[in-house]
């Protein structure tokens, strides 16, 4: 294997109901930095299981009990696990924290949320047994897959021994710090496996000198797609380690310092990265596998050796020590300068969730909504939404509606608590299948829809979210099952998507759309862009589809991701451009002959074939696919 090194050259309607939460139920997160999660929202509090968080007691058993209480196997309805909440404190542990079902099998849906990143600390005991040998590493936090199909060893995985698989849904870790303690050279802070939807957000990983092998490990079969955002890694031999050829990881706002072996090591996977800051003595990014794609935009690297490369790297505005800013591609040992595409939308950050006092929150349950999939809660939802509350939350469960719900201008946040919204079979006659289950029609302040699943599986066509009002809309940690995800009308406002799976979407109008970690699976056109600016960091597809149809002056920029047809089928282009501008950078996965695209771009009579791009096993690397304005440079 040839390896290339680059050096340094380089008004409320019902006030009583709005106040009911503050009077009758305590808030679990009183501090200003906390996410205020109501006690009646269906979360699991580790303190209720005996965890003390005093830095002295061993909280391992208590936290494991709380994780078990987070939910048993939900089968293919993988979006129904509960949040396990850790109030601020230092939780001393002596063994791995992981999720197993009652029968002992590895489970998915481990959702750990701290009160605050700095205040919630999970700390490994000093010189903990089992963490002292770097040759036999062991994790402090460990997420795993459930087992739905095939055998425990299908595809070469070791489900029974390692919790491996591609059913690692809903594994999320947020707002906490993991500390390896002293004298634990074999410790991995987080051994992370997630598929389709899952995120690590606002997490710090820290290791004392000589303690800590890997900060974030994602090397088991098969990591991704998942979002890693606002992660800080101090110390460790290796900061982030990734392996396998699928299914792609998305990183944003990542800070690493002090690693001694490598800050980021990638062996064959596809990494999409934006906003990376790295400093330390080791190589910053070691892309050591020949099938590895690392796409980095807007990075700052202070390491003497910024890159070690055996695969493909795409760099946009990556600043190195000495002042050089790199734009172009690195294919093995060959560097090619290429400015970023012109005329494309510049990424904007997702608007932060509004800080709303508890008295301005309300639960749909206070208005009669019942988490029962055969009882109609439509009117209860409408009363809650019309109450004047700014935050509407759904206590964990499955709720049924028979008609669409309009989101008024007063509502600024909808918190699903990983609940499900589904449609009754006896739907109201006027409920359009092309209209949204939730409709955004008016308002000025941004509205955020979070931790909610929309389910109409095997019940016919339906749309989840319709945006027809000119207000910003955030869609975060949302599952679209048996529904289209989004229809943004021409008059609609900006849309921000984070960690979203799995439906198709259509966007129109001049307001831009920004997506981070978008998994869209199935056949047909997955994204129809009718004239909008679209910036997408970390795309993942699965199925025989045209990923984007660009029309009417659309400007689509896809930076990083993994495209995966799975099987052979009718020939379709990966992208179609008709009077728009497109730029795309991705890797394609193919595990059997013929299960890959023949045409990457159909552009008004011009076809760009796949075989013109560098090989990646049975498929290809696509470092630069462009049409229209994307053909030009800044």
What does this structure look like?
The chain is mainly beta. It folds into three domains: 44-309, 3 Solenoid (Pectate Lyase C-like); 341-348 and 494-634, no CATH class; 355-468, no CATH class. The protein is 5% helix and 44% strand. It is built from four helices and 46 strands. The strands form four sheets. The chain has a 15-stranded mixed sheet that branches. Strands 24, 25, 26, 28, 30, 32, 34, 36, 38, 40, 42, 45 and 46 form a 13-stranded mixed sheet that branches. The longest helix has 10 residues, at 15-24. Residues 1-33 and 630-634 have low confidence and may be disordered.
Summarize it.
The protein is mainly β and 634 residues long. It has 3 domains: 44-309, Pectate Lyase C-like (3 Solenoid); 341-348 and 494-634, no CATH class; 355-468, no CATH class. The longest helix has 10 residues, at 15-24.
């Amino acid at each position: 294997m040839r390896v290339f090194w680059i050096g340094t050259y380089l008004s409320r309607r019902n006030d009583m109901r709005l106040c009911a939460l503050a009077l009758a139920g305590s808030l679990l997160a009183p501090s200003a930095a906390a996410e205020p999660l109501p006690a009646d929202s269906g979360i699991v509090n580790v303190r209720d299981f005996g965890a003390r968080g005093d830095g002295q007691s061993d909280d391992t058993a208590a936290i494991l009990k709380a994780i078990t209480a987070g939910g048993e196997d939900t089968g293919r309805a993988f979006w129904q696990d509960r949040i396990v909440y850790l109030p601020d404190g230092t939780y001393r542990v002596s063994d791995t924290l992981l999720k197993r079902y009652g029968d002992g099998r590895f489970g998915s849906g481990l959702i750990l949320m701290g009160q605050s990143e700095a205040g919630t600390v999970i700390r490994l005991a000093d010189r903990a047994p089992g963490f002292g040998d770097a040759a036999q590493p062991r994790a402090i936090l460990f997420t795993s897959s459930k087992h739905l199909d095939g055998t425990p060893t299908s595809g070469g995985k070791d489900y029974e021994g390692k919790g491996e698989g591609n059913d690692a849904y809903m594994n999320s870790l947020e707002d906490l710090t993991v500390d390896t303690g002293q004298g634990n050279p074999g410790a991995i802070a987080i051994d992370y496996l997630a598929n389709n939807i899952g995120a690590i957000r606002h997490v710090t990983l820290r290791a004392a000198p000589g303690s800590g092998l890997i900060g974030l490990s994602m090397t088991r079969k098969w990591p991704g797609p998942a979002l890693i955002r606002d992660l800080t890694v101090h110390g460790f031999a290796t900061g982030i380690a990734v392996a396998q050829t699928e299914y792609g990881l998305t990183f944003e706002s990542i800070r690493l310092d002090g690693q001694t072996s490598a800050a980021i090591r990638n062996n064959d996977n596809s990494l999409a990265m934006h906003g990376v800051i790295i400093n330390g003595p080791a190589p910053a990014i070691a892309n050591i596998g020949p099938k590895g794609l690392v796409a980095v935009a807007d990075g700052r690297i202070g390491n003497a050796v910024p890159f070690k490369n055996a695969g493909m790297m795409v760099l946009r505005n990556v600043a190195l020590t000495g002042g050089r800013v790199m734009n172009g591609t690195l294919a093995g040992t060959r560097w090619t300068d290429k400015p970023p595409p012109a005329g494309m939308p510049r990424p904007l950050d997702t608007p932060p969730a509004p800080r709303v006092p508890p008295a301005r929150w309300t639960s749909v349950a206070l208005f009669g909504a019942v988490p029962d999939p055969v009882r109609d809660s439509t009117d209860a939802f409408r009363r809650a939404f019309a109450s004047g509350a700014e935050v509407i939350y759904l206590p964990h469960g499955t709720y049924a509606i028979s008609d669409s719900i309009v989101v008024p201008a007063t509502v600024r946040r909808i918190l699903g608590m990983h609940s499900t919204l589904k449609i009754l079979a006896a739907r109201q006659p006027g409920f359009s299948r092309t209209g949204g289950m939730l409709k955004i029609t008016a308002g000025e302040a941004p509205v955020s829809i979070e931790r909610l699943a929309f389910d109409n599986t095997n019940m016919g066509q339906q749309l989840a979210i319709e945006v027809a009002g000119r207000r910003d809309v955030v869609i975060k940690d949302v599952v679209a099952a048996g529904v289209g995800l989004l229809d943004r009308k021409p008059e609609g406002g900006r849309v921000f998507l984070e960690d979203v799976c799995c439906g198709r979407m259509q966007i129109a109008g001049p307001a831009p759309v920004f997506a981070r970690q978008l998994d869209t699976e199935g056949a047909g056109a997955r994204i129809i862009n009718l004239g909008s600016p679209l910036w997408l960091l970390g795309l993942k597809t699965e199925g025989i589809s045209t990923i984007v149809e660009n029309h009417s002056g659309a400007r689509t920029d896809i930076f990083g991701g993994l495209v995966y047809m799975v099987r052979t089928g009718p020939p379709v282009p990966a992208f179609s451009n008709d009077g728009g501008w497109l730029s795309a950078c991705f890797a394609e996965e193919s595990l059997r002959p013929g299960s890959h695209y023949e045409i990457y771009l159909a552009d008004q009579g011009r076809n760009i074939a796949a075989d013109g791009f560098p090989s990646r096993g049975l498929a290809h690397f696509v470092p630069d696919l462009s049409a229209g304005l994307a053909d030009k440079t800044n």
